[in-house]
Amino acid sequence: MRTRILLAASALVLVQASGVSAQVFRVTLTSIDGPGNGPDGIRTEAEGRVNQGVNAADCESEASRGATTLTFSIDGTGNSQLQVWRGAGSLDCSSAENRTGDISNLCDDIGPESVADETLEITLDELLMGTGSGSDACETDAAEGDVLTVYFFDTPNSLGNDDGTTFVTQQVVVDPTPPIAPTFEQDAVSGNSQVSLSWNDLTDNRIRYQLFADTSLKTCADSDLLVPGMVPTGVAALETTEELVASATVNPTSDLRLGVGESTRVYVAGFDNAENVGVLSQGVCVTRVETFAFCDALDDMAREGMDVDTCPDGCDAGGSGGASMAFALVALFAWRRRFGAEGVLR
């Protein structure tokens, strides 16, 4: 009789056959370190990014695959080596039948891997070796990438051909497909202290977004540094949103370094949790305009905690400054009479 116990948080499988003494152990993918680390550095389990996977930069060449290291934490085995097999998706490599005979389209034997200080390291090149299912994961064009299931057998002196052998599994995502370019919902915006930008949300549910601008330009002319359709390699992002947030605010004065009347283009690119940076969108022209007292006063009131509307983009450049200031002062006086200087309702 055979039993299995599966835990999602860290990979744990107990396989026990009649007459076989099985020892429970755990394997957890703790970090990925390679050319595709991105601006946030090494991808770690603690940051919640390691399970989002290997990316396009890791997959780019034989050299980059050899330079990408996946580190697994090993807990509960006294062996100095584990036998490693790899399949793709839900392919079952626990069956001896799938690990023996003609298995060129099934599971690949990665070989014995050494355990040192309760860790085991496998390069991406090693992980993708062979001809079985999953060996071409770096060539996938799926938006969510390919999921590999890695089997660790607690059998240092055999190939793990016995169905009664103790093993654990760990999934690894290989995502070499950068996000496509988003599309801004505006063609041009203006403001002084902030402008609001929004774009279409992409379908990848692990996506974040980054804003870019060539702050050396003071007109909305074409830039050699940032070109729609290019990957902004080596260019610092103005801002990175949280997952699924398809909007952001930009300060034309401090972020874009614009003088009054000057303009520049802002671009957006997708950025997924595997650290793949997508291509740049078409730009939106942002112009810094001089504001009058009305909007400034409303901004000050909002910062003090007052419940007031803020100026929409562009409106702060128009209207009568004196009349607007008078309106703002009346609003401020009414608010203070109602709530008091300390903001307490009277």
Report on this model:
By secondary structure, the protein is α+β, with helices and mostly antiparallel strands. It contains five helices and 16 strands. It has helices at 56-59, 62-66, 124-127, 293-303, 321-339; strands spanning 26-33, 43-44, 54-55, 69-75, 81-88, 108-114, 119-123, 146-153, 167-175, 188-191, 195-198, 207-213, 239-240, 247-250, 263-272, 284-288. The strands form four sheets. It has a five-stranded mixed β-sheet. A five-stranded mixed β-sheet has the order 10-16-15-12-13, with no helix packed on it. A four-stranded antiparallel β-sheet has the order 2-1-4-7. Helix 4 (293-303) packs parallel to helix 5. The N and C termini lie far apart (76 Å).
Going across the major beta sheet, what is the strand order?
3-9-8-5-6
* Continuous helix count: 5
Main pleated-sheet profile: 5 strands, mixed
Note the gap between the termini.
Answer: 76 Å
What percentage of residues falls in helices of 4 or more residues?
Answer: 10-25%
Radius of gyration (Å)? 28 Å
H and E order: EEEHHEEEEHEEEEEEEEEHH
Structure classification: alpha+beta
Count of beta strands:
16
- Name the shape in a single word: elongated
What's the pLDDT, averaged over the residues?
78
Strand content: 25-35%
Oligomerization status of the protein chains: single chain
Identify low-pLDDT runs. 1-10, 12-22, 314-346
Task: Itemize the secondary structure elements and their pairings.
Layout: E1 26-33, E2 43-44, E3 54-55, H1 56-59, H2 62-66, E4 69-75, E5 81-88, E6 108-114, E7 119-123, H3 124-127, E8 146-153, E9 167-175, E10 188-191, E11 195-198, E12 207-213, E13 239-240, E14 247-250, E15 263-272, E16 284-288, H4 293-303, H5 321-339
Parallel strand pairs: 3-9, 10-16
Antiparallel strand pairs: 1-2, 1-4, 4-7, 5-6, 5-8, 8-9, 11-14, 12-13, 12-15, 15-16
